[in-house]
Amino acid sequence: MNQNTAISQNGGRRRLSLITVSCLMLIFSMTTSVLAVRIKDIVEIQGVRDNQLIGYGLVVGLKGSGDGNQSLFTLQSIASMLEKMGMTVNPAKFQVKNVAAVMVTADMPPFARPGTRIDVTASSMGDASSLQGGTLLFTPLKGADGQVYAVAQGSVVTGGFAASGAGASVQKNFPTAGRVVSGGLIEKDVPSSFGKKDRLALTLNHPDFTTASRVAESINTAFSSRIATTSDSGTIEINIPSQYTDDKVGFVASIENLGVTPDIVSKVVVNERTGTVVIGENVRISTVAIAHGNLSIQIKENPNVSQPMPFSQGQTVVTPNTSMAVKEEKVPLYLMPSGASIGDIVRALNALGVTPRDLISIFQALQAAGALQAQLEVM
User: Fold this and answer.
1) Residue 105 Cα distances to 41, 144, 215, angstroms
2) Model pTM score
3) Where are the domains of the chain?
4) Which of 27-31, 82-86, 170-174, 285-289 has the highest mean pLDDT?
5) Is residue 149 within 8 Å of residue 51, measured between CB atoms?
């Protein structure tokens, strides 16, 4: 009976140990997943990118807020458009205020096919005061090679308004620029050789040798083969396995969802205009003593005025009485140990009671002393 009890106790201990190990593995996996990010969030695939389009057009239907007579190109554009429609007019003999000349821009997404709709932005070129309520007329959009890839037309939606009276005016945001939602129509696609490639190249958004090596290692581990290599700090080249020759999209999708922990450069970023200070995780400080205090000087003027008696023909005498007070804040000298982490830095600076403005001066002094083991970037 005692033997059975001992066996039962030993079995319970084993189960408890297995549960403990499982919990530790679960916590470790959760910690790893939290620290890791998807590869698709830190890289771009070479050759898969947007293409910028631009065009010149007219916005009509404005309520007297269009271009004036000083914008000659608007009048010439109207005359040219009417001439194409069979009407001949002289630009110098007509005046319109409900038309505005605009530049139309758009981003053509990768693999966009004819018939795909995109958003376009219309921005005033002349002296129009608002594009609110206007309609963009048929506008060809060209690429960098001069070819037309899309056309745009539709109602312009502005994110602001402007109104004025005889003695006051009000404006919100910028009514001289607006957006035509789904107003662009793709007419020609950009040739792509993505489906014909047997190699892929990934470009890091922030080039780093350590991050590039980790990305390549993560891909090689996932596919149990050395298919990924790094040519520099920003490029990872991948040989597409033979089993994915006809499924390159699936291969890219499997790579994008792999997790990797990117490495970052130790950096402290300060913005003197707004008083913003951002300290990176890996920032370290060498052994240094820090003291930071304020000196305030207060001066008060209390003039003593002595006036003569009436009809005494005397003079008013003013005697200055100046009081001065000098106050220097007493702060302790704080010793910062070598290799202090970001937590140590924050606790030390909080103990000194510094403000964000003071932090900027302190970090600049630390860099000048050679104690800041990080890049200091001033915006």
Assistant:
1) 26, 12, 35
2) 0.66
3) 51-186, 193-260, 267-378
4) 82-86
5) yes
